[in-house]
């Protein structure tokens, strides 16, 4: 995660962090909420096949059910993709009927 350096000269503005200023746009930085980065991490780990218990530990979930409930869609998408691959492989090997 990249954090932009503030360039405000007004002490009142410096005391209140506001990361949705145009400073980030000028610097070419994308503003990402911590929640989004955390959820993205969980999604990427799940997609990579990391065990749910490990994802749970990394994200700090108190129960495995929370991790599984939140990231079930990733597993379902992966299963659909795997079935699509199987379908394609089986269609290639099917002998042609006369």
TrEMBL record:
Domain of life: Bacteria
Keyword Acyltransferase appears in the UniProt entry: no
GO molecular function, one term: DNA binding
Domain Tyr recombinase per the UniProt entry, residue ranges: 1-84
Entry keyword annotation includes Glycoprotein: no
SUPFAM superfamilies reported for this sequence: DNA breaking-rejoining enzymes
Record-level GO BP terms: DNA integration; DNA recombination
Pfam family, one: Phage_integrase
InterPro entries tied to this protein: DNA_brk_join_enz, Integrase-like_cat_sf, Integrase_catalytic
Keywords annotated in UniProt: DNA recombination
Protein name as catalogued: Integrase
Organism (species): Streptomyces paradoxus
